[in-house]
Amino acid sequence: MGAYAYVAPQSVEEVVAILEEHASSGDRAQLLAGGTDLLVQMRTVDREPRTIVDVKKLAETNRLELGGDEIYIGAAIPSAVLFENEELKALLPGLLEASDLIGSTQIQGRATMGGNLCNSSPAGDSIPAMIAVGAICDIGNGSGGRQIPVEDFVTGVGTNVLESGELLLGLKIPRPADNSRDAYLRFIPRTEMDIAVAGAGVSVTIEADGTCSTARVGIGAVAPTALLVPAAADALIGTQLDDDALNAAGEACTAASSPITDKRGTAEYRRKVVAVLCRRAANIAKQRAAGA
Amino acid sequence: MARVHVEATVNGVEQEFLCDPNQSLLDVLRDELGLTGTKEGCATGDCGACSVMLDGRLVCSCLTLGAEIQGQSVETIEGIAGEELHPLQQKFLEHAALQCGICTPGFIVAAKALLEKNPNPDETEIRYWLAGNLCRCTGYDKIIRAVQDAAGELAHPA
Ligand SMILES: Cc1cc2nc3c(=O)[nH]c(=O)nc-3n(C[C@H](O)[C@H](O)[C@H](O)COP(=O)(O)OP(=O)(O)OC[C@H]3O[C@@H](n4cnc5c(N)ncnc54)[C@H](O)[C@@H]3O)c2cc1C
Ligand code: FES
Ligand code: FES
Prior knowledge:
The structure holds 2 protein chains of 2 kinds.
Chain A: E1 5-7, H1 12-25, E2 29-32, H2 38-43, E3 51-54, E4 64-66, E5 70-74, H3 79-83, H4 86-91, H5 93-100, H6 105-108, H7 113-119, H8 126-132, E6 136-140, E7 146-149, E8 154-156, E9 159-160, E10 167-174, E11 180-187, E12 198-206, E13 212-220, E14 227-228, H9 230-236, H10 243-256, H11 267-291
Parallel strand pairs in A: 1-3, 2-3
Antiparallel strand pairs in A: 4-5, 5-10, 6-7, 6-10, 8-9, 11-12, 12-13, 13-14
Chain B: E1 4-10, E2 13-19, H1 25-32, E3 51-54, E4 57-60, E5 73-75, H2 87-94, H3 104-117, H4 123-129, H5 141-155
Parallel strand pairs in B: 1-5
Antiparallel strand pairs in B: 1-2, 3-4, 3-5
Helix pairs in contact in B: 2-5
The complex binds flavin-adenine dinucleotide (FAD) and FE2/S2 (inorganic) cluster (FES) (2 copies).
C-alpha cells in the first residue's frame, strides 16, 4: 500500500526513470496533464494512492509548431491555449472544434488533447478528429521513442498501447494543403456540457474541378474505441461529394459501428446518427477546403 | 504521506504552504489559507463554484492540485473587490442575481474573466461562457442581466 506523492519532472528522461522505478518496485505512478479526467477519477472510481507525475513542465509536451510540412501539438497544452491560435484554427478547424467542445470554459483552461487521447474513452471528442487529420502519436520512452497513428493507439475502453515507462509527448499532423480541410460534429442531448452520443470527424481535399481527391473519416462513441473508417473515405474519394457519395459514406460509418445502448441513446439510434454526422461533417469540410 | 512545500502568489500576496500531494487547490485555499470565499459544489468539475484564475486562466480549483501551483499566481473571489465592490459584485446585488449565494463567487470570477477577454459580450456569449457555472436558485436570467449591466458599467463608468 503506497502513499500519494506528487512530482513535476523537467525532462522526459526523468519522467521515464520515475515510471520505470515505480514499475520495478510495484508502486503505482500515473501521469497528470490537465487533471480533468484524472482528478475526477481520483475522487470517485479510483481512490488508490499513487505517485502523480506531472507532464506539464516538459519542453516536449508544451511544443506547438506549425511547420511547412508538419504541425506539432504538445500533449500538455490546454485547449484554451490552442483555441487562441488563429493560424492553427484556420489549418485544423475540425480538430480545434473538437477540443473546444470538451467541457466548460473552466475545463478548457486545463484539459489537453493528450489527456483526452490517453484517457482513451470511447466518447473522447478529439480522438475521431485526430484520426480524420491523420495525427501520429509521438511517444517518449527509454529507447528513443516510437510513433503510432492515433487510430492504432486506443486498444479498448480506457486502455491504450502505452507501456510502463512511456508517455505521450505530442501529436504530429501533416500540414493540410490549401485545398484540404477538416470538420468535426458530435451529437449531445443538450447544447453544452455533455458526452457525445456519436461523433464524426472528416477531412477532405477538393480539387479545382470539385473532385474530392483525398478523404479520411473518424467516428467516435459508436464502438469501444474511436475508429478510422476507410470504407467511408473510399465512398468520398473521386466523387463531387454529391448526395449519393455522402449517403454511401454515412452508410459505411453505420456499418463500422458497434454501439451500446445507454441513457444517452440506443444502439440503433447511434448507428443512424453517426451517418448523419458523417454526411454533415463532410459537407462542412468540403466548403472549408473549397474556400481555404 | 510526504507533504509538498509550495510557494505561490495568491491575490497578489506571496504565500507558502504545505499540502498533501492529492489535495486540491480548492481545499488548499479553504483549509490551508483560510480563503473560504471559493466554494465546493461538486468537486468533479461540473458546477464551477470553485472557479479561480490560475496564471490568468479560468480553471476549476477542485480539478487542480495544490502542489501544481508552485510558482504560479492565483486570483480568487477575495481578490476582486478593491476599496469598493467590483461592478460585477455591485450588479449582482442590484439585480438580486443570487439567493443562497453558493454559486456566486464562481459566477463572479468567471464573468470577470469573460469581460476581460470580451468587454461587450452578447447574451449568447455570456451563456456559453458561463455554461460551466451552475445555479440551482436564480434560473440564470438575473445573473445574465447583472453581467450585461456590469459590462455596460465597466465600459462607461457612471
Ligand atoms: C465537466 C467536464 C466535462 C467534460 N466534457 C468532455 C467532453 O465534452 N468531451 C470529452 O471528450 N471529454 C470531456 N471531459 C473529459 C476531460 O476533460 C477530457 O478527456 C480532457 O481532454 C482530459 O485532458 P486532461 O489534460 O485533463 O487529462 P488528465 O486528466 O490529466 O489525464 C487523463 C488520462 O490520460 C493520462 N495522461 C495524461 N497525459 C498523458 C501523457 N502525456 N502521456 C500518457 N498519459 C497521459 C492520465 O494519466 C490519465 O489517465 C469532461 C470533463 C469534465 C470534468
Ligand atoms: S466544485 Fe469544482 S466544479 Fe464543482
Ligand atoms: S444562488 Fe443558490 S445556487 Fe445560485
